[in-house]
Amino acid sequence: MTEPNSPTTLSQSIRRSAIGLAIFACFTAGLISVTNFFTQDTIQTNERAYEARQLLSLLPDGYAAEALLNSARSLDQIEATDLTLLHIAGDELYYRAINDQGQVDAILLPLVAPEGYSEAIRLIVGISPTGTIIGARVTRHRETPGLGDQVELQKSNWILQFNGRSLAKPLPAAWQVKKDGGQFDQLTGATITPRAIVTALRQGLEFFELNKTRLLADALLEPTL
């Protein structure tokens, strides 16, 4: 007859199971660490490539991705004021598109539209030295599929209506969607999202005007890598 396990035998069994689980956990953690180590450079490269594509999409052909990325500077670095207009922190980066003559053709600014339908909407806007929008893109959002998500260029041309606009064209009072008496189209079935973006881009232009000298005249500053 087989005798039941003694407390000592049961304790040993539990210890063996615990040791086995610990070894498995250590092995798994080590495997994850090794995988992360070898894929980190790839992830960073892919993120940098995506960032470059977003920036270059705002500009005419002819700008080098690496030069554009290397132009990054933090807004704190130039002691920018009125950051509340952008709804971002001072450690966020902006970029400068510089031509072959060393002149700044555009400032590329990140900004946030805090009053999106689902959550805050992140954008980037390209502004010429004269204060004219050369392009804008939504970079992150969670708006309703089929409605608010039409602010993506991949879904519709709605965002292109801001090209060539400035605080003089139209005047600030007209920087609203047409439903509110302004000059900008809303989206069918979605007004909150377009309204938030129109306001955010107007405030981005206002920020640019208030900080134009700092944004355009920091060529001697070291870039933020």
TrEMBL record:
Provide the primary localization: membrane
Cofactor(s) essential for the protein: FMN
The record places domain FMN-binding at 116-208
Q: What is its EC number?
A: 7.-.-.-
A molecular-function term among this protein's GO annotations: electron transfer activity
Its biological purpose? Part of a membrane-bound complex that couples electron transfer with translocation of ions across the membrane.
This protein is called Ion-translocating oxidoreductase complex subunit G
Q: Which organism is it from?
A: Reinekea forsetii
